[in-house]
Amino acid sequence: MYVCLCKGITDTQIREAMDNGTNSFRELRRELDLASQCGKCGSLARSVFDAHLSNYDESLCYAVA
Questions:
Q1: Distance from the CA of 63 to the CA of which of 6, 8, 39, 49 falls in 20 to 30 A?
Q2: Rounded distance between C-alpha atoms, residue 15 and residue 46, angstroms
Q3: Which pTM does this prediction carry?
């Protein structure tokens, strides 16, 4: 799904950036140039970021257990 219509950024691109080592939302914004035009995508992008980050946390818990 498109998260940023101004730049044509999708939720898949956000997840891929995170899988490739983007560790913070600030880094993600810089790397993909998110929320740099109208800014309306910022909250949805943050939601996608947080949801994908929680998937990492859950998988780490299982790996440790």
A1: 49
A2: 11
A3: 0.83
